[in-house]
Write a structure and sequence with these properties.
290 residues, 7-stranded mixed β-sheet, 9 helices, 7 strands, 37% helix
Length: 290
């Protein structure tokens, strides 16, 4: 009768659940839902709750994104690992960069392909300046605020050096916290000058191994079979589905292809905003040549 029992429930074969953490973190487009804690929380809960699993594998492919969502996902993984006493193995695919690397640091060991993009331990922010353009075409910007800095870095106003410095101060604080997190997880494994490691630079998996940013070169299937035997079962854990087949997401998450409520068609911004979001997402991946 064992052959009729789902593999993940059979005790004659080791089971290592796999969770895919893919996409830009906290940033959604119509066709590419962003990676958020709300969207991945139930999946993580289900993966760590599988009984007798010797480990949980994370398949990571992200160029980064929101530092808040990156840290929230990092914390949830560490909390679940402690609660269920699970060893966590992170596998970097195309990219584990910036916030993607922060999430990878939630693993007890990080494994990457020789050509994976790893690192980018820094903080970046950007915008556009349209003040000269609207002046040329005869548009007058009218903005009404209560609060001296409420319109800080408005793209339709001339850039204010004081506002830029305030932003850079915020970025420095986030960067310092990111550095502290990496040091706490990688400890004595790091091998290189901090001026390089934490400069925002990124490397291939092979160079990242030399720098101590990862622990080994390999891929998920090969490593898990070597570690737990050829009969290891690696079920991909995804979001649960309701009675009508729709995915069930965490609290505060839209059921609309996994996007936050403000990102969908027909909601705030509409098609134009979605197109800009798609271009920005493409630009984030392009920073790493991907």
């Amino acid at each position: 009768m064992l052959r009729f029992v789902p593999q993940r429930f059979r005790r004659d074969r080791p089971v290592v659940p796999v969770v895919r953490l893919t996409g830009i973190i906290g940033f959604s487009t119509p066709l590419r839902p962003g990676l958020t804690l709300a969207g991945i929380a139930r999946t993580l809960d289900r993966a760590f709750a599988i009984k007798n699993a010797p480990a949980v594998a994370l398949s990571i492919n992200s160029p980064g994104g929101s530092p808040v969502q990156s840290h929230l996902i990092f914390r949830r993984i560490r909390e679940l690992a402690a609660e269920y006493k699970r060893h966590v193995i992170g596998f970097v695919e195309d990219a584990g960069a910036s916030g993607g690397y922060m999430i990878a640091c939630a693993a007890d060991e990080i494994i990457a392909d020789p050509h994976s993009i790893v690192g980018s331990i820094g903080v970046v922010g950007g915008s556009f300046g349209f003040d000269k353009l609207i002046g040329k075409i005869g548009i007058e910007r009218r903005l009404y605020t209560s609060g001296e800095h409420k319109a800080m870095l408005d793209p339709f106003l001339p850039e204010n050096p004081d506002d830029v410095e305030r932003l850079k101060t915020l970025q420095r604080g986030i960067h310092e916290d990111f550095i502290a997190l990496v040091k706490s997880r990688r400890g004595g494994k790091l091998n290189g000058p901090e001026s390089d490691l934490f400069s925002g630079e990124y490397w291939t998996g092979r160079r990242a191994l030399e720098l101590g940013l990862i622990d080994a070169i390999g891929d998920l299937r090969t490593v898990l079979r070597e570690r737990f035997g050829d009969r290891v079962v690696t079920p991909l854990i995804s979001a649960e589905r309701g009675l009508l087949g729709r995915r069930i997401y965490g609290v505060g998450h839209s059921a609309m292809v996994g996007m936050p409520l403000h990102a969908g068609f027909g909601l705030q911004g509409g098609l134009a905003e979605d197109l800009i979001s798609a271009l920005e997402a493409r630009a984030i991946w392009a920073r790493f040549g991907l």
